[in-house]
Amino acid sequence: EEKKYFIPNQFTNPNNPKAHYENTAEEILRDMDNKVDVYICGTGTGGSFSGTAKKLKEKLPNIKTFPVEPASSPLLSKGYIGPHKIQGMGMSIGGIPVVYDGSLADGILVCDDEDAFKMMRELSFKEGILAGISSGATFKAALDYSKENANKGLRIVVLSTDSGEKYLSNAYNY
User: Fold this and answer.
1) Cβ contacts of residue 140 below 8 Å, gap of 6+?
2) Model-level pTM?
3) Most exposed of 34, 112, 119, 153 (fewest Cβ within 10 Å)?
4) pLDDT per residue over 22-39, tens digit each?
5) pLDDT tens per residue, range 117-155
6) Is residue 60 within 8 Å of 115, Cβ to Cβ?
7) Which residues make Cβ contacts (< 8 Å) with residue 46, sequence separation at least 6?
8) Which among 2, 22, 73, 11 has a CA at the least distance from the CA of 46?
9) Which residues 6+ apart lie within 8 Å of 76 measured at CB?
10) What's 18's DSSP letter?
């Protein structure tokens, strides 16, 4: 019988990190003229982080790469899953997905729920970037990282992996 469905299963599909290895990383390298010191990306499946970080580390051996996870669900940094409100972030499938390669991480950054929502709104209202909640968390973690490493002249790339469009009716009132 002919199958009438397709399940991409982004948590186990090797094409998830492969797409970011072949495309996202190449776009970053091209647009940044191969000059990137730090790469920061939120983690849902870990595919965006892993695929992009792998290629960036191959091309730029001194780059530092950091995944971001919810502070209240620190599976990568502390080994447990907890409740959080950062939709699209946090490896809450019961474990670390096979598409995530932790060996590529130079550390783990975290963000609180409230800070993620606050940054999402700030990106929208002050910068004109309609980012989603997980992007708010990623940008907040990147901002904190940049403050801790101020005056070092670092070129930091932050990958925004969601849009705020689907949150217009509720998240902007948080």
Assistant:
1) 111, 115, 116, 118, 119
2) 0.92
3) 153
4) 999 999 999 999 999 999
5) 999 999 999 999 999 999 999 999 999 999 999 889 999
6) no
7) 17, 67, 91, 96, 97, 99, 100, 101
8) 11
9) 43, 67, 69, 91, 96, 102, 105, 108
10) H
Q: Are strands 38-42 and 64-70 parallel, antiparallel or unpaired?
A: parallel
User: Max alpha carbon distance in the chain (Å)?
Assistant: 63
Give the C-alpha separation, 98 to 149, whole Å: 32
Across the beta sheet with 64-70, the strand order is 109-111, 64-70, 38-42, 156-159
Query: Is the Cβ–Cβ distance between 70 and 77 less than 8 Å?
Result: no
Is residue 66 within 8 Å of 109, Cβ to Cβ?
yes
CA separation for the pair 160, 137 (Å, rounded): 10
DSSP string, 44-77: SSSHHHHHHHHHHHHH-TT-EEEEEEETTS-HHH
The continuous run of DSSP H or E covering 158 comes out as strand 156-159
- Domain 16-173 listed as CATH 3.40.50.2300: no
